[in-house]
Amino acid sequence: MDAKENREQIIRDAKSSLIMDAARKVFAEKGFHETRLDDIAAQAGFSKAALYNYYSDKESLFLSLANRDFELLFEAIKNNLDPSAKFLDNLQRILNTVFTFFGEHFAFLLATTNFHQPCNDGAGKIGEYHEKLFSQFKKKYSQVFEVFTEVLKEGKRRGEISYDLDEKIISQYLVSLLRGIFIEWKSQGRKGESDVEIKQVISFLTNGLNIRS
Question: What is the pLDDT of residues 37-49, one digit of tens each?
Fold first, then answer.
């Protein structure tokens, strides 16, 4: 790539990032189904025609943004883990990262957890590009489960925790628990107190229901 092509790519990447930032704001406010490309173009300061130079439709834009955000979340989780730390410490690190990230973008990120099917092309067929983006999204979303799974395995290997269920099932339960908290945030129209929520999650995981027969 020569100097001119490099400059053009930098400019294109900057404009694409600007569009995605505007899209996150609109998707968070209106939800996926109510958002129109005109809304995103207006928020970004682009014409709708100019927007088509970067994204062919709102599904592609939504999935591209979701992929970018979940990649950032996954990298943040990985970077904050300490292989030498105890299970409870690493669990705390994961929860701190997830709550911070969702706290900053919780309306949009919550919308991504409800996005399960790529849209068809109008003829009942899923476009190849949509399918590719959606496959990438599912992979990045599943990476969060994988981090929990690996931390559980290491904690069990060290004898710090014990359980009978498969690690993947426990990870699904834990992620579902966090998702429920974020749904509650959205229903209330505000973020909760992350420190309090994290303490409650850890207390529940540590002590359980303490059921007596």
Answer: 999 999 999 998 8
* Residue whose structure tokens are 């099932």: 169
d(CA 169, CA 149): 9
With respect to residue 186, please indicate whether it lies within any of the assigned structural domains: yes
67-122 residue pLDDT tens? 888 888 899 999 999 999 999 999 999 999 999 888 777 667 666 665 655 555 44
Q: Which of 37, 46, 42, 59 is nearest to 16 (CA)?
A: 46
**Domains in the chain, number:** 2
Q: Is 122 left (phi over 0), alpha (psi -120 to 50) or beta?
A: left
pTM, two decimals, is 0.78
Phi and psi of 182, rounded to 5°? -70, -35
**Residue 212, domain member (yes or no):** no
**Domain interval for residue 173:** 57-207
